[in-house]
């Protein structure tokens, strides 16, 4: 029953100084601007952030049997180009609109991927970072938790759409059941849901319920740890391990076995995540998965 997940959720309300090779600039939220926090550049943007954590353990952080997505550097770079505004006829980057429920949303004939997570986990900031090279495409970001109230849809070159969903938990919209849950349950072109979790804390109670919602609906999803620039390496490692432990203990059948790590501030892991988005939407071939 759709309403059960939302009811349980409500109970648990608990510059870059140099340009990138794949992005010209990064989005900086108003809150971080106010804090004036210095961002340390990432030396290599086309890698998996898990790789830098591996020296901390003698055993593989992610079992070899679980590593299902291992694109080459060339493939990661190719994926990042999909988010680059090239002057090719017919290619578009645009905000398509906002809708309160899926029943009145247009039915486009392209794959869709949705981003969901608790309020203030950084969904809008992540999309803003992805679209940082497109000056005419604005993703509204607020320091106030629960700012996103509608389902915001963005077009990527007429190849696929990214959907920014309202957050659950604190200040979640009253229409969460008829918008987010209805969308997840009924949207036929939905290819994958990206379940965002704060890397500085790891999964919290409200995240567990959000994941239960995905499992109850049998919606294919992948866990993404955000704000990794704010987490110490030991904290980030604990968050990764806690995600893997939760996945194993709950037997999360709809969850992609490999978690992703990303920062919308310094760009680490962004190109790797873009490669996965390109892959699941049918716009990138991965040789190792052929």
UniProtKB/TrEMBL annotation:
Names of the cofactor(s): Mg(2+)
GO terms, molecular function: GTP binding; metal ion binding
Tagged with keyword tRNA-binding: no
Keyword tags: GTP-binding, Magnesium, Metal-binding, Nucleotide-binding
InterPro entries, alphabetized: EngB_GTPase, G_ENGB_dom, GTP-bd, GTP-bd_ribosome_bio_YsxC, P-loop_NTPase
Gene3D superfamilies membership: P-loop containing nucleotide triphosphate hydrolases
GO cellular component, one term: mitochondrion
Signal sequence extent: none
Keyword Nucleotide-binding set for record: yes
Domain EngB-type G residue range list: 109-283
The family this protein is said to belong to: Belongs to the TRAFAC class TrmE-Era-EngA-EngB-Septin-like GTPase superfamily. EngB GTPase family.
Protein name listed in UniProt: GTP-binding protein 8
Record organism: Lymnaea stagnalis
């Amino acid at each position: 029953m759709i309403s059960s997940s939302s009811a349980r959720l409500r109970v648990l309300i608990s510059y870059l100084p140099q340009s990138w090779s794949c992005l010209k600039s990064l989005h900086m939220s108003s809150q971080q601007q106010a804090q004036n926090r210095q961002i340390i550049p990432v030396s290599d943007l086309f890698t998996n952030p898990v790789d830098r954590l591996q020296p901390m353990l003698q055993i593989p952080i992610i079992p070899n049997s679980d590593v299902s997505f291992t694109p080459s550097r060339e493939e990661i770079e190719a994926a990042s180009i999909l988010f680059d505004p090239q002057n090719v006829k017919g290619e578009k980057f645009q905000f398509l609109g906002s809708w309160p429920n899926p029943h009145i949303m247009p039915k486009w004939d392209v794959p869709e991927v949705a981003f969901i997570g608790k309020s203030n986990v950084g969904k809008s900031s992540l999309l803003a970072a992805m679209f940082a090279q497109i000056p005419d495409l604005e993703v509204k970001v607020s320091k106030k938790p629960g700012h996103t109230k509608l389902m915001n849809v963005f077009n990527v070159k007429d190849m696929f759409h990214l959907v920014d969903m309202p957050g659950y938990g604190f200040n979640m919209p009253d229409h969460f059941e008829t918008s987010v849950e209805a969308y997840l349950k009924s949207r036929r072109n939905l290819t994958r849901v990206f379940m965002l979790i704060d890397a500085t804390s790891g999964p919290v109670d409200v995240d567990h319920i959000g994941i239960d919602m995905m499992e109850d609906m049998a919606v294919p999803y992948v866990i993404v740890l955000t704000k990794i620039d704010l987490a110490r390496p030991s904290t980030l490692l604990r968050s990764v391990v806690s995600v893997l432990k939760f996945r194993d203990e709950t037997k999360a059948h709809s969850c992609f076995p490999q978690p992703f790590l990303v920062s919308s501030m310094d760009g680490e892991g962004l190109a790797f995540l873009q490669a996965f988005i390109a892959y699941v939407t049918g716009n990138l071939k991965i040789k190792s998965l052929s």
